[in-house]
Amino acid sequence: MCGVLFWFAPEAEETAPVAEVEVVARPLDAKVKLTLPSGEQVALDKTGDTGLDLGNAVAKDGRLVYKAGGEAVAEEQWSRVETGVGGDYCLQLSDGTRVWLNATSRLDYPVNFLRRERMVRLVGEAYFEVAKDASRPFIVEANGVRTRVLGTSFNIQAYDDESDVRTALVTGRVQVSLPGGTKAVDLTPGREAVWVKGSSGLSVHVVDVAKVTAWRHGQFLFDNESLEVVTRMLSRWYGVQFVYDGDVHGQHTFSGRLSKDWPLERALEMITLAGGPRFSREGDVVHVME
Description:
Layout: E1 2-5, E2 32-35, E3 41-43, E4 52-53, E5 57-60, E6 63-66, E7 78-83, E8 89-92, E9 98-101, E10 106-110, E11 118-129, E12 138-142, E13 145-149, E14 153-158, E15 164-171, E16 174-177, E17 185-187, E18 191-196, E19 203-206, H1 209-212, E20 219-226, H2 227-238, E21 241-244, E22 253-259, H3 264-273, E23 278-282, E24 285-289
Parallel strand pairs: 1-22, 6-8, 11-12, 21-24
Antiparallel strand pairs: 2-3, 2-7, 4-5, 5-6, 7-10, 8-9, 9-11, 10-11, 11-14, 12-13, 13-16, 14-15, 15-18, 16-17, 18-19, 20-22, 23-24
């Protein structure tokens, strides 16, 4: 059974002055949080209208921007930005590279890049626009997959609860490889490299980059996706667990758009109206029924 649904959501912009803010050493309950090299944490989603001034970086208008250069240090100092359920965020690294993190993701990165390779580590999903530097390649390590670029834009999906890791190229050129000396693959725009976890090689496929990157523009975009794929994506954003009652698996596929600004109930109603199953919510558990 196939359902079709369509929705377009406009993006909004806000401006805010910048002010000093206190960091804390205790763990934070926040949708988006920054962990500094000292271990202190900052709630990036709770800045209100004042913004954040951290000395070497400024958080304003929903993004964290690092200053080029900065204080001279002998070794790289690493920070982490992580998003929780229903959180996404944009940051600009000290080399000018911009990164958009999807929900339930984390990025570890040096505050300043001091080595010949600009290395970052990702768990979850992120879209990268890499600043060009021919002398220092940019490398993303994500759940066992290594992506090497000089300057380009691409999306990596590397969630722990997915069976594969996907690298989709939007512009430029990237090289994707696995540990252990396996042969690397070169991607051209509109193609993605897929590694099935536990396998020994990568496969390359044509991909719709608009679909892959729709999350960055506040949308879920499905193209003949299984119900399991749809519910996993909704689970990460809304923080609920889907439980299948009866033999529902594998009976539905979906195509179309949902807005991430919708309440969960509206999204589920649209899926049902498009020919999908019924849903019943009990707190953080959603039952899927025929």
